[in-house]
Each structure stands twice: as structure tokens, then as C-alpha cells.
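Following the same procedure, sequence and fold were stored together, as reproduced here.

>
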Amino acid sequence: MLAKRIITCLDVDRGRVVKGYKFFDHVDAGDPVELAKRYNEEGADELVFLDITASHEGRDIMLEVASRTAEEVFIPFTVGGGIRTVDDFRAVLKTGADKVGVTSAAIKRPEVLTEAAERFGSQCVVLSMDVKRVADAPPDKPRWECYIHGGRIPTGVDALEWAVKGESLGAGEILLNSIDADGTREGYDLELVRTIADAVRIPVIASGGAGSPEHIYQALTEGRAEAALIASVAHFGDGVIADIKRYCAERGVPIRPVGM
């Protein structure tokens, strides 16, 4: 059985790591290069670097900051934000990234997933989905809608349908970001994670809401995610990654121990 992964996330705005609440009201959390080095040393399995305002501001991703961050990590590294074309994929991979995340551009022009997968391989293509519950959906038939431009613009695209389509177009992994749970530290939207994970064959990364080792354990078991992404709980805690891994391992979750 493949080991489950604990992934730390750096949401970057103007060269600084920030953390918000439901995608807004951001506070400073530190320098991306310093935090990347710290998480690499503390035993994170992977690192995700997201330039969270690039798409909204219509600019290119901050490649220089991503490159300096990549120099400090020796674990798989995903970079996203402002990705629009295959050339953008190439530029990001040249910084030292292993994978590239794409959100807004994939919804606007889905074929970019196929183009990138054909050029670089599906293992490099991460479909990042920012989703929010549809308020008027029946409780027994919940639905989630995809948003773009950093959670600012609703698209009318059903998250479940988009996940399935994204896989068929060439995505090798899904980064599933719950806007409702983001920054709350009250736990992942397990119903959302499980719904998407059960519908696709590619790995799903649960994102949004982690506040304790129990929450990560729930995402990896009840949610059936292959990986759990953490941000606030890591930025503002100490030794959190080791605690999470120990907690999950003690409960039978296959996970890489710190130090491997």
C-alpha cells in the first residue's frame, strides 16, 4: 500500500507567505524560502507553492521566488498560480519544480491539461480546484461549485463533474481546496473529499481546515484522500509534522516516518 502524504503549503502574495480565512483576510506568515527549508527539515513529504494573486492580477507567477524556494527543498515541489499555457508549465518546471498546479486557466481552457500532460507527462499536471458548497443544494445531494481567480469568481462548474473531466483530460493529481473550510482549523470538508476521491482514480489531496492531527487522520481515512495539505497549523505551530505523522501511524495509516 502506498504511503499517505503530509504536504505543507505556502500561499505566497508579493513574495511573502500569507494565510487567510476562507481565502480572504490574509495575515503574514513568513518568508517562503525560510519556511520551505524548515518544512523540508521537519519531515514534510511534499511542498506546494501557490502564488495566490497571480491569476486575479493577470500577471505571471513569481518565478524568481519559486526558484529560490526550490533550492531549499529536496522533496517533491509543486508550484501554481497564474499558469495559463504550456510555456508557463515549462518555465515553472525549469525553476526546479516537480509538478505544476493550474486552476483558473484549466476551467477557461481545459485543453491546457491535455497539452501539458502530452508534453511533460500527467505526473507533472496538478488540477487545483477551489470549491464552495452550493447553499441551496439538498442536504442528501450536496453539490460544490468551482471558483476561479483565488476564490473570487464563481463559474457555475460542478466540482464533481470537473474533477472527472480533469482526470480524463490528463491531470495526474487533484488538489482539492475547500473555500468553506479554509483557515478555520475546524477540520476538512470530509464529504467533499470523499465524493471527489471516490469519483476519480488519480490521487486527491485534501486541503482546507486542518487544525489538529485528528483532522489529518480523518481526511486520510474517512475522506479517502491520498494526501493532506496543511498550512496554518504548520506556520503557527512547532514540530507539527512529526506529531501528525506519529498520530496517524499509531492508528494504522501507512505514512513515511520523519527522517526517511
Observations:
- Residues 5-250 form a domain with the TIM Barrel fold (CATH 3.20.20.70).
